[in-house]
Amino acid sequence: MSALKEKLGWRKVPPGGTISEAGSSALYKTGAWRSFKPVIDKAKCTKCLICWIYCPDMAVKRVNDGVEIDYEYCKGCGICAAECPVKAIRMEEE
Ligand code: SF4
Ligand code: SF4
User: Fold this and answer.
1) Of 53, 60, 70, 72, best ligand 2 pocket probe by most atoms within 8 Å of the beta carbon
2) For labeling, which of 18, 45, 47, 51 is most exposed (least CB within 10 Å)?
3) 83 DSSP 8-state letter
């Protein structure tokens, strides 16, 4: 903190809670926040895409044979597992 004070005066510190450039969220690999990860059982999956619709982080990706999780961005909230109608997603501890 003291190093930051030495380098930047208050006029140069960017305001918090603002997005300074478009697409910046792609740079933040929010998957590092996760303590549980969703694992899809492809044998049970009916490809209904409910998990794809509900994921708040767009971490469920549509692929040719159904869906897969993008672990670089999945935060492990478990919404996909809770909403899957056939319980094809289980949450595993990291
Ligand atoms: S909600 Fe469940 S069944 Fe539907 S696509 Fe996702 S994993 Fe497959
Ligand atoms: S656990 Fe949460 S963030 Fe990760 S894929 Fe499921 S709904 Fe998306």
Assistant:
1) 60
2) 18
3) H
Domain extent listing, the chain: 30-94
Which amino acid, one-letter code, is at 79? Answer: I
User: pTM (2 decimals)?
Assistant: 0.81
How many Å lie between the centroid of ligand 1 and the Cα of residue 57? 16
Closest residue (by CA) to atom 8 of ligand 2?
A: 55
Q: What is the CATH number of domain 30-94?
A: 3.30.70.20
H-type alpha helices, 14-85: 50-54, 79-83
Q: What is the mean pLDDT of residues 31-57?
A: 96
